[in-house]
Amino acid sequence: MRTMLSKLRRGALAVRWRIALAGGVGLLLAAGAVSGCGGSAAGASASATSGQTITLYNAQHEQTTDAMIAAFTKATGIKVRVVNDDEDVLTAQIEQEGSRSPADVFYTENSNWLQQLADRGMLAKIDANTLANVPKADSAADGDWAGVSARISVIVYNPAKISAAQLPTSILDMANPKYKGEFEIAPSETDFWPIVASVARADGDAAALAWLKGLKANAGNDNVPDNETLTSDVSQGVTDFAVINHYYYYRLQAVVSGGTGSAKLAYFAPHDPGYVEAISGAAVLKSSKHQAAAQEFVNFLTSQAGQEVLESGVSFEYPIKPGVAANPKLPPISSYQPNSFTPADLGTGEAAKQLLQEAGLI
After folding, report:
1. pLDDT, tens digit (0-9, with 9 covering 90-100), for 56-76
2. Could you tell me where the beta strands, DSSP code E, fall in the chain?
3. Nearest to 214 by CA among 1, 361, 349, 350
4. How far apart are the first and last CA of the chain?
5. Residues 295-340 pLDDT 10s
6. CB-neighbour burial class of residue 156 (10 A; exposed 0-12, middle 13-18, buried 19+)
C-alpha cells in the first residue's frame, strides 16, 4: 500500500514537470517555432486573411500548440484564440454547439475524435494541398481531417523492480494474473483509447472486454489520471511498469533533472495490438465563419515550417511530413514495428469508451 509520503513525492514531481513545461520549455518551443517560419505555404494568401482571428479548440499539449501558433501568426498575420480542454470534452462541446460553435479548427492528440465529428458531418473538407503534405494513410480517407504528428505506444519500466525479460511481450499478457499488482493504468486518459480500439480491431469486442476486465483485476492502480503520472510513478518505483505514449518519457527527461530515474523503455512484440502508432490531427469545422484562415492554419501545421516546430522543440512527437526529421533525441520512427492499423481502422472514440465503461474502468 502506498504511503501518503510517496503520493506527495509523486505529486510534487508531476507539478514540477508541468511548471517546467509551462515555463522554460515553453520558451524553447516558441524559439524553435520562430526559427522555423521560413518557407511556409501559409504565407501565400496572408494578404487576404491577415489580421483575422480564428478560434482553435485545442486538445493537444498546450506547449506544442502555443509554439505552432506563434510561428503561424508570425508567418500569416492571423491571430488565434485558443480554448483548451481534453479531446473528449471538446468533442462533446462541439457536438452540443452544432452550427453555433465558435470553433474554426479542432486540434487533437488522437484522430478518433476527429473521425467522430466527421461521421456526424460536422467537418469541412481539408484543402488538397494540405493533405498532400503528409502521408495519405495518416489523414482521413475522405479528406475530412489531416494528420499532423505521430506517437508510439511503449512500455516504461523500472529495472530495479522488473527486468526486461520479465515484461509482457503482448499487451494481452497484462491480463494474466502473473502481473497482478505490477502495473498501473490510466483508463480515463484518452491516449489509452486507441490501444483499446486496436485490441478490439485485432480480436473483437468480446475479447477486448475480457482483456480490460483482466487489466482492472491486475492493476495496482486502475485510476491513474494521466500518462505523466504513470511515467512519474514508474520512475519513482511506485509501480513496476506501465504503457504510455513514447513522448511522455522523453519530455520528463527533458524538463525534470533526473525525472525518469533509472526507468527505461521497452516495446511489445512487433505488430502486437498494443504496439500502436497513433496520429494527432486537425480539422476545420463546417460551421467555421473563417474558412480560408482556418484552412491556412491546418495547412501550416502540416507544412515544412509547422512540422519543424516538432523537430526543434521538446514536444517529442514525430513529424509526419516526409523529409522533416524528428527531435534528435528520439529513435528514428522507422525503427519501430507497430501494428498496421491506420486511423481509419481504429475508428472513433465511442467504441473504446463503451468498452471501458462496460469493464468498469471509467
Report:
1. 999 999 989 999 999 999 999
2. 53-58, 79-84, 105-108, 146-157, 241-245, 264-266, 277-284, 318-319
3. 361
4. 22
5. 999 999 999 999 999 998 888 999 999 999 999 999 999 999 999 9
6. buried
